[in-house]
Amino acid sequence: RETGGALRTIHVLDSLGIRHTGMFPDSAERSRNYPLQITSGNMHFSILNYTYDTNGLPWKKPFIINIIDSALILRDIATAKTTNPDVIIAFMHWGTEYERQPNREQKLLAELMRREGVHLVIGAHPHVIQPMEKHVATDGRCRQLTAWSLGNLVSNQPFENSDGGALLKVALKKDSAGVWVSWAGYSLVWVYKPVERGLPRHYILPVTQFEADTARLLPQYRRQIRTFAKNSRQLLNTYNKGISEYRFFQNIPVKRIEPIPPVPLVSTVNKKQLKQK
Q1: Which of 78, 162, 85 shows the shortest CA–CA distance to 124?
Q2: Are 165 and 204 in contact (CB under 8 A)?
Q3: Range from 49-63, 92-106, 183-197 that averages highest in pLDDT
Q4: Contact at 8 Å (CB) between 104 and 112?
Q5: How many C-beta atoms lie closer than 10 Å to residue 236's C-beta?
Q6: Burial class of residue 223 (count of CB atoms within 10 Å of its CB; 0-12, 13-18, 19+)
Q7: Strand, coil or helix: 193
Q8: Rg for the chain (alpha carbons), in Å?
Q9: How large is the angle between the packed helices 70-81 and 104-115, nearest 10 degrees?
């Protein structure tokens, strides 16, 4: 928790080789490594990350967490542009919990970032899925995209609509005219929470492969996954703009998994590693 917990999170991510951004031990580290720069193939990405709050938990200087502030975001976008990125992506921890539509602040911030040249705005925090939309430029190509909230990926929340989320897949193309979104789609995932050997477990299941399955899930779990799927599709089919559902792992068969074998918890492994160090 608080500063110590945040520093430990950074240490664990670094030890696993997982790139991250949004919080920093001090201002010098932020200046060196923010925005986060990633190159994949022939594309260069500049990654921004902000949060509305830390759930009321304080942190101590010199530790830095990127709190949403329009002036700060504008400065960081300007810094990102100095690296000549093909794509600027902003990950936003924002919105109103359990609300299935973006609020006014989300809309204003997204418009500001798009106007300043951010290509993809990807949101989280409401714990439920919110709509996604492409933004088509005057040349007829989609140059920008907003996903207001992808919901929950790993969650222990039992509330309706908060027991799952969406994976967003975006295909980008680049030519002399710049970068554009050639295709975008989402796939629903649901959190399966059985009790195994007296311990609660969490598994992420692709909805399209399990919602109609009568052999691998007990009746109460089938009802829950179907309710999540129905509510999510109703929302996204109504409000999405240019982004449709795709079948996750369409060509990869899923073998029988009931009972699902226990999976070591990452946090447990990390604790042991830290003690050894």
Answers
A1: 162
A2: no
A3: 92-106
A4: no
A5: 20
A6: exposed
A7: coil
A8: 20
A9: 30
Tell me which H or E stretch contains 158. none
* Residue of 33, 29, 23, 96 whose CA lies nearest to 57: 23
Query: CA-CA distance, 63 to 26, in Å (whole number)?
Result: 5
DSSP of 1-65 = -HHHHHHHHHHHHHHTT----SEESSHHHHHHH-SEEEEETTEEEEEEEEES--TT----TT-EE
Q: Which two tokens stand for residue 226?
A: 């179907």
The answer to whether 80 touches 35, Cβ cutoff 8 Å, is yes
Report the mean per-residue pLDDT for the chain. Answer: 88
User: Which residues of 151-200 form beta strands (DSSP E)?
Assistant: 164-175, 178-192, 195-196, 199-200
- Contacts of residues 12-20 at CB distance under 8 Å and 24 or more positions apart, as own/partner, are 12/270, 12/274, 15/270, 15/273
Which alpha helices (H) appear in the chain, and where do they start and end?
2-15, 27-33, 70-81, 104-115, 207-210, 219-239, 266-276
pLDDT digits (tens, 9 = 90+) for 215-229: 888 888 999 999 999
* C-alpha of 202 from chain center: 18
Per-residue pLDDT reduced to its tens digit, 75-116: 999 999 999 999 999 999 999 999 999 999 999 999 999 999
Phi, psi of 10 (to 5 degrees): -60, -45
Among 259, 249, 183, CA closest to 221: 259
Specify the DSSP element, H or E, that contains 163: none
Amino acid symbol at 159: F
